[in-house]
Amino acid sequence: MQCLIIPLTTVPKGTWRCDKCVINELNKPSDAFGFEPAQRQYTLQQFGEMADKFKSKYFNMPVHLVPTDKVEQEYWKIVSSIDSTVKAEYGADIHTIDHGSGFPTGLALSGNEDNTVYKSYIEDHWNLNNLPILKDSVFSFINADLSGIKNPWMYVGMCFSTFCWHNEDHWSYSINYSHWGEPKTWYGIPGSSAEAFEEVMKETAPELFHSQPDLLHQLVTILNPNILMKANIPVYRTDQNAGEFVVTFPRAYHAGFNQGFNFAESVNFAPADWISIGRECVNYYSSIKRACVFSHDELLFKILQSCDELTPKAAALVYADFKEMVRFERVHRKALLDWGVTEADFVEFEHKEDDLRQCTICNTTLFVSAVSCLCDKKRLACLRHFKQLCDCSAQMHVFKYRYTIDEFPTLLRNVKAIAETAYDD
After folding, report:
1. Is 379 helix (H, G, I), strand (E, B) or coil?
2. CA pseudo-torsion sign 63, 64, 65, 69
3. Listing from the earlier edge strand, what are the strands of the sheet with 162-166?
4. pLDDT tens digit string along 229-263?
5. Can you spell out the DSSP letters for 41-87?
6. How many helices (H) does the chain have, and how many strands (E)?
7. What is the pLDDT of residue 89?
8. Which positions fall inside the JmjC domain (predicted)?
9. Which of 5, 57, 211, 272 could form a disulfide with 314 if both were Cys (CB 3.0 to 4.6 A apart)?
10. Which stretch of 114-118, 140-144, 246-250 has the lowest confidence by average pLDDT?
11. DSSP string of 314-329?
12. What's the order of all strands across the beta sheet hosting 376-381?
């Protein structure tokens, strides 16, 4: 109202908008959706005091007397209200590498504490620092410290702090443990319904997905489960209490919120049955041009190089995935040759930074093979998109390879031999 030639002190009755302000607002560049960083830092005690004070004041009763269903009802009322001004803060994605873990990790003990008991907790398989790198988890073959995937993240919640609809990177499994505090309310959708869920989300908020196509990968979108269930999407709900684990399965979308002050920790893991799902995910990422967190093929070759450590069942799953990769390479390398590419260079892709070995077209992290052009040697394409790399002739292009076709059979034989011992038993 202050921009008018004669400023007003009150908004006129009826539906009224200042045309000048509307034009200015529409001309602003659209921002990506997301959460704002908090304006202050807290100690754990300060955050807890703030969280308890907020919940007690909001519901006008002691925090421990507020029923979970009342918090849930109020939460969805807030989410569905366009005029809501309720603000909750969340200590999310806190790196255990930097701040330590809620689980014991082998730090020296002082005094006369029982080292035997403490060591059993350090080595326990349910300790989330151990779970991703157990022998049966294929993530144990990843050398890099991938925070959140191989190293747990911690979460300090308060009433209404939210984790939005998402599934895990590379469609891996995840596990979350609540160390202490008030419950965490979860909603889950089976991986088999992931595509149907994505379609409903896009139909419900098309304008959001138009401005940010990868919205579901940004963890910023929440939608009432009732809307999903009306569209025949199966939704499951649980309250996770202190001392309880929640496991999510490959491609399963999940979301939720915290009932009050609590502390949780989570990490990803991948038993051998994930391997084929992981390849399916990378192919999906390629179709939507989403960058990978790690190279699936590079992980596969690291497993093959240590395949003597695999169980027969795991070896069979690795063998099937490797056969699929070899089939892809044979078909697409032939297509490249038929197109007219004759030059080839050996490249150890693992020695390059990930952002320097991405397909220019689909952002897939390259490892087994790639294509470049003499017009710009830094740009690479995967075998799916080599014709889209540039407008130069085939003779200008160069095939980059980490392994020749002749090297594949030996690797296949080794892992196949281990897989077949399952039938010998």
Report:
1. strand
2. positive
3. 162-166, 253-258, 184-189, 236-240
4. 999 999 999 999 999 999 999 999 999 999 999 99
5. ---HHHHHHHHHHHHHHHHTS-GGGS-HHHHHHHHHHHHH-TT----
6. 12, 13
7. 94
8. 120-286
9. 272
10. 114-118
11. HHHHHHHHHHHHHHHH
12. 343-346, 397-401, 369-373, 376-381
The pLDDT tens digits for 36-60 are 788 889 999 999 999 999 999 999 9
Residue 92 carries which side chain, given as an amino acid letter?
A
pLDDT in tens, 75-100: 999 999 888 889 999 999 898 888 88
Q: How far apart are CA 340 and CA 349, in angstroms?
A: 24
pLDDT digits (tens, 9 = 90+) for 194-228: 999 999 988 887 877 776 666 676 667 888 999 99
Burial classification of residue 228, based on how many CB atoms lie within 10 Å of its CB (0-12 exposed, 13-18 middle, 19 or more buried) = buried
DSSP secondary structure string, 185-199? EEEEE-GGGHHHHHH
**Strands 153-157, 262-269: parallel, antiparallel or unpaired by DSSP?**
antiparallel
Closest CA to 95 of 180, 42, 155: 155
Length of the chain: 425
- pTM value is 0.85
